[in-house]
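Much of the work behind modern protein science is quiet bookkeeping, done one molecule at a time. The fold becomes a row of whole numbers, each drawn from a learned catalogue of backbone shapes. The protein below has been through that process, and both of its lines are reproduced in full.
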Amino acid sequence: MHSKQFKVKIFAYSYSTEFIIDSLDGPLDIENAIIDKLGKSDTKWEYLGEMMDPKVNRITYEEVINGENDATSKRPLHEKEGSRSRMGARAS
């Protein structure tokens, strides 16, 4: 298995941050990569203000897909694919 890139967003205690991690696709692997990144102390936190509820804390992540590895890179997303019915004589 090879690692994938994930964009991590953390909202906690009226602050937020986001960063990219490299990790295997399993939840424990992603969690450990997030903890390793936070342990490096180079994370920049942005103050969101008092409007954000400090009781609401959440971490989200999504896979980062590069253009060359994306399955849709060969065709545009808006391309419509359809199926056609065929009629023909059946052999008996």
